[in-house]
Design a protein that fits this description.
The protein is α+β, with helices and mostly antiparallel strands and about 475 residues long. Helix content is about 15%, strand content about 35%. The chain contains 10 helices and 27 strands. The chain has helices spanning about 60-65, 200-215, 230-235, 295, 350-360, 365, 370, 420-430, 450-460, 475-480, and strands spanning about 20-25, 40-50, 55-60, 65-70, 80-90, 95-100, 120-130, 135-150, 155-165, 175, 180-190, 195-200, 225-230, 245-250, 265-270, 275, 280-285, 290, 305-310, 315-320, 340, 345-350, 385-390, 405-410, 415, 435-440, 445-450. The strands form 5 sheets. Strands 21, 22, 23, 24, 25, 26 and 27 form a 7-stranded antiparallel β-sheet that branches. A hairpin with a 2-residue loop joins β15 (about 265-270) and β16 (about 275). α8 packs across α10. The chain is flat.
């Protein structure tokens, strides 16, 4: 599985560096604390490289929340306007193109290696120094191949680590083996010494294939289970002989396609024909093992796979469909946050960028445990969202409720809340005397309907807010009001 076959006697053609470009971007990130406006724009400089089909790859974080992306060729003083085709936040890869034919003159696409490099192989990283128009080249040895946390996308995928220090401007740039084949993309630091991780070719090819297959980035799928390793005593209680290996399913997300097919205490013996060890690893290249989540990450949304399980001392095989949509999405696809305001209560849908904005880089520690418990949950329907009161714009109408922050809204006037659109529609079309919001922890917010709607306009004026709802909600509410 991915064993490297080194080609002796060949060297990297230096002309491959002509396919490496400088990426300049103006970013205008959303303001999750005040979703009716955006943050102050800022500039960034990074690296990209040309692949087949007149396309360029770089990091997702290099162009996230972009308003303008420009590319510059090596040795050129011309900036070319780029179009962003896809942003894969989970894998930190973005795909760009340029309409101007002159940009592609003399450009040859970078070729990807068929196999992963092996430990101690030499890797050459090519990129642009920050604010400079010339290329820097750094060489290092491959130090690790393992499943790692992708910081930008809040997910875990295969990653490489090299022992060389690089300039931050190299992010998004290619890493080559000795024959000039691309084996990865620089994307995040390892430590304060500027040593870096690389996105390896299996992840890169998955991103490209996903775009070619679906016309957009759809993400990496999940099985929707929690599992535990099988220790000796536990193996005995599960009726496993010495020749049987696997992992025990602890929990299955109720909204996952596997729910009702697999069951808690099933022992997964193999995933799509690949045996799973007692510690949850699978064979990965000679004398190596890796977490079996690697196998899942190689699949695509909607793929059907065969899971072999041990259940009540009997072996079964089940067809299971993989899903990638999560209740709390890992990215916002560049859109401004949706929001709805009534009587100073600001409602929004939770996402990982929202949690990051509210609680910082350590959101997975500092955020409320009831929100964190839902990070890996899947929605019960395609349009389900986790809606919260993000803040209260203090006014006499909401006095006493001002400490409510990030409490999930479960129901409105007794009706379950499916998403932010449905909540806004129910409130806007409510003719009852009271507005009653049921929150988690059995908390209730009750307001007089007429007074709440009248107060909203004054509150918007006081806080200089242009609208009581985000632009994406307006067409939906107009449609509902005409039905």
């Amino acid at each position: 599985m991915g064993h490297s076959k080194r080609k002796k006697g060949t060297k990297m053609d230096p002309r491959v560096m002509d396919s490496v470009v400088r990426v300049s971007c103006v970013h205008s990130p959303p303001n999750f604390s005040q979703p009716w406006q955006r943050m102050k724009p800022y500039n960034s400089s990074s690296t990209g490289f040309v692949i087949s089909g007149r396309r360029v790859l770089t990091n997702a974080h290099s162009v996230e929340h972009y308003t303008l992306v420009m590319l510059k060729k090596r040795g050129s003083d011309t900036n070319y306007l780029a179009t962003v085709l896809a942003i894969g936040t989970e894998c930190d890869i973005a795909m760009l193109t340029v309409a101007d034919d002159k940009f592609w003159d003399g450009m040859s696409p970078v070729e990807f290696g068929e196999d992963l490099p092996t430990l101690l192989d030499t890797v050459t990283v090519v990129g642009y120094l920050i604010g400079r128009d010339f290329i820097s080249v750094t060489r290092g040895l491959l130090a690790h191949i393992q499943i790692i946390s992708y910081i930008h996308g809040s997910t875990k995928l295969l990653g490489l680590q090299i022992d060389a220090a690089i300039n931050p401007g190299n992010y998004g740039g290619p890493a080559f083996n000795d024959t000039g084949s691309c084996v990865g993309i620089v994307f995040q630091p390892v430590d304060e010494k500027n040593r870096v991780h690389l996105i390896p070719t299996p992840v890169i090819k998955h991103f490209i294939r996903d775009y070619e297959k679906n016309g957009a980035y759809t993400g990496f799928p999940a099985l929707g289970i929690e599992w535990q390793k099988m220790r000796n005593e536990l193996r005995m209680t599960m009726g496993m002989g010495s020749d049987i290996k696997g992992i025990r399913i602890k929990r299955i997300d109720p909204s996952a396609p596997a729910y009702g097919v697999l069951k808690p205490s099933d022992v997964i013996l193999s995933f799509d024909g690949v045996d799973v060890a007692n510690d949850g690893t699978v064979l990965f290249r000679p004398r190596g093992h890796i977490n079996f989540s690697y196998l899942i990450s190689q699949k695509y949304t909607g793929d059907n796979i065969v899971v072999k399980v041990l259940r009540n001392s009997e072996i079964y095989e089940f067809d299971v469909t993989l899903s990638c949509k999560k209740l709390i999405p890992a990215y916002s696809q560049g859109r401004s946050p949706s929001y709805y305001i009534i009587a100073g209560f600001v409602f929004t849908a939770v996402s990982v960028p929202y949690l990051h904005s509210e609680y910082g880089e350590d959101y997975n520690i500092k955020a409320p445990i009831k929100l964190l418990d839902k990070l890996d949950s899947m929605p019960k329907s395609p349009d389900e969202q986790l809606v919260v009161i993000s803040q209260v714009l203090v006014d006499d109408i909401n006095f006493g409720y001002e400490d409510i922050t990030n409490n999930q809204v479960l129901a409105f006037n007794g009706k379950p809340i499916k998403n932010l659109k449905s909540l806004a529609s129910l409130v806007e079309n409510c003719n009852d005397e009271h507005l009653e919001f049921s929150l988690e922890d059995d908390q209730i917010v009750a307001l007089r309907t007429a007074r709440a709607k009248d107060a909203t306009l004054d509150i918007l004026d006081t806080y200089c807010i242009p609208s009581a709802m985000s632009d994406d909600l307006l067409p939906y509410l107009l449609k509902c009001s005409n039905m």
